[in-house]
Amino acid sequence: NEYDHVLPMDILPEYLIKAIIAGDIDRMEALGIYEVAPEDFALCEFVCSSKMELQRIVRDGLDMLRREMC
Predict the structure, then answer these.
(1) pLDDT tens for residues 40-53?
(2) Widest Cα–Cα separation across the chain
(3) How confident is the model at residue 1 (pLDDT cuts 50, 70, 90)?
(4) Residues in contact with 12: Cβ distance below 8 Å, sequence separation at least 6, in sequence order
């Protein structure tokens, strides 16, 4: 996929983004949300043909996890 070429991490970025959008916390944890920061998705956002705001989506996912923990 287009993200796999620019993301040097051993995660599945497409599925992680889908889990964040769906609000599926268990799936986000299983896909490695704790291993990423929004900035890690800057190049993915640049090459995204849909021009989705991936950094904002990841930030929203991390914020969702933080709220869930409190």
Answers:
(1) 999 999 999 999 99
(2) 36
(3) confident
(4) 31
C-alpha to C-alpha distance for 67 and 69, rounded to whole angstroms: 5
Torsion of CA 20, 21, 24, 29, to 10 degrees: -10
The pair of three-digit structure tokens given for residue 36, joined into one six-digit string: 């990423």
DSSP the chain: -TTTTT--SSS-HHHHHHHHHHT-HHHHHHTTGGG--GGGGHHHHHH-TT---HHHHHHHHHHHHHHHH-
